[in-house]
Write a structure and sequence with these properties.
- The protein is of the alpha+beta class.
- It has a single domain (about 5-105), classed as Aspartate Aminotransferase, domain 1 (Alpha-Beta Complex).
- Helices cover about 30% and strands about 35% of the residues.
- It is built from four helices and six strands; from the N terminus they run αββββαββαα.
- Strands 1-2-3-4-6-5 form a six-stranded antiparallel sheet.
- Strand 3 and strand 4 (about 45-50) form a beta hairpin.
Length: about 110
């Protein structure tokens, strides 16, 4: 899986210089972590967003947002947003805010 430099830059701009934010290569793409917890990622097949188990129903109702699959298995609490979804400024911001709210509530690593 190839990286998507444009999406990576878009996520950097949205997330800003937040304390505890880090980045690294992961899952064949580029991952963004907050305080050591996976937050979101960018790959050529879309933006990965961690919403937490039971928090993703609203997101899955949005256009071009699907459950995240890993090796054919659905990853509970994670969604994959395609170009139509992450290209929509309001939806992208809403997805990232929901991910931040979830991950900020996790215990420190």
């Amino acid at each position: 899986m190839a990286r998507d430099a444009g999406l990576e830059e878009l996520l950097r701009e949205e997330l800003g210089q937040r304390p505890g934010l880090s980045e690294k290569a992961m899952f064949g793409g580029w991952a963004f972590l907050l305080n050591g917890h996976l937050l979101c990622g960018a790959r050529e097949d879309g933006m990965l967003i961690r919403l937490g188990k039971g928090n993703d129903a609203w997101a899955l109702e949005q256009p071009d947002v699907k459950p995240m699959l890993s090796r054919g298995r659905e990853m509970q609490g994670w969604v994959r947003a395609g170009p139509e979804a992450y290209g929509n400024d309001m939806l992208r911001k809403r997805l990232l805010l929901a991910a931040l709210n979830f991950v900020e509530g996790l215990p420190p690593k």
